[in-house]
Amino acid sequence: MAFEFDFDLLRDLTETSGVPGYEDRVREMVRDELGATTDHVRTDAMGNVVGTIEGDSDYSVAVAAHMDEIGFMVKHIDDDGFLKLDALGGWDARVLRAQRVTVHGEEDVTGVFGSVPPHTLDDAEDGEEEVGDRVVDLGRDAEEVEELVSVGDVVTMNQSTIEMGDSVTGKALDDRVCLFAMLEAAREIEDPDATIHFCATVQEEVGIRGATALGVDVDPDLAIALDVTIASDIPGVSEEDHVTALGDGAAIKLKDSSVITTPKVHKRLKSVAEDGGIEHQLEVLPSGGTDTAGFQNTNGAIPVGALSIPTRYLHTVTETANGDDIRATIDLLTAFLESEDGDHDYSL
């Protein structure tokens, strides 16, 4: 299908590397994009980027999406040149077998996660796996590896982003697809009444750290965060465990394990969606946290809401989102921000 958004930008964002604390390459892209669509852009000491559109009123809204992807840091290089890694973010070790990675050392180096051929495994060896058990093979002798890689270098998964039917699949859709939606809204919004801070945050995958700092620095009257959410609408998962479904529209978050969104905010998001004929669904996420929590009570309590893009196979290299859901999220975020003028009462 021909997507109704800038697929090339989405592909570039997802294929670019940026683990928690090392979001530099993504940050440069974000600064360029926001520099063209907002009144001014700044970067703080943690690396969060804020692009601001100045509105006519004193009322301000923060929109947040995180730049970092889950990845690794090299913690040890053994005598044979194999790398042992420490995880940056939540990984299921089972999905790492036979995957390619990029080690960002003196130069970008391709490697693979090694695994023992199944022919040689016995039942005792085929048990539960840990990320720390995995090793990266760079296909080089130890001396050359030592010249190229050091302890502390970061590692990302190596995967392209492609169109797959009505969907997009690749690595780092968590959360680059929502970062993309935020950047598209900043491009499409016209003369908002409220001042809007578009916040590209860091280190979400290791504890919502960037957004927590921004909650103090930006100090908005209202915050809306964007992140992916679970879509387990696949064979073998009962319907009650789907959370969301691909193709049913943007997800309006009611709760996750880090936040209960402000009822008046999520009700108004729903109202804006209904008035605009924008496809949407409601999200009740039993576990997991988002940048929404970073703003809710960091600098005193403020009302918060959240939009999510349903995504299958989270925290793998084949994360998959539906093109229409992405478009619906952009449309709903844009319509909501354009209607924010400070007159909506979110008090309890």
UniProtKB/TrEMBL annotation:
Keywords: Aminopeptidase, Hydrolase, Metal-binding, Protease. Binds 2 divalent metal cations per subunit. Zn(2+) 2 binds at D174, E205, H315. The keyword Signal does not apply. Zn(2+) 1 binds at H66, D174, D227. InterPro entries: Peptidase_M42 (IPR008007), Peptidase_M42_aminopept (IPR051464), Peptidase_M42_dom2 (IPR023367). GO terms for biological process: proteolysis. The active site is at E204 (proton acceptor). Belongs to the peptidase M42 family. GO terms for molecular function: aminopeptidase activity; metal ion binding. Its cofactor is a divalent metal cation. It comes from the Archaea. This is Endoglucanase. The keyword Amino-acid biosynthesis does not apply. It holds the Pfam family Peptidase_M42. PANTHER family: AMINOPEPTIDASE (PTHR32481), AMINOPEPTIDASE YPDE-RELATED (PTHR32481:SF0).
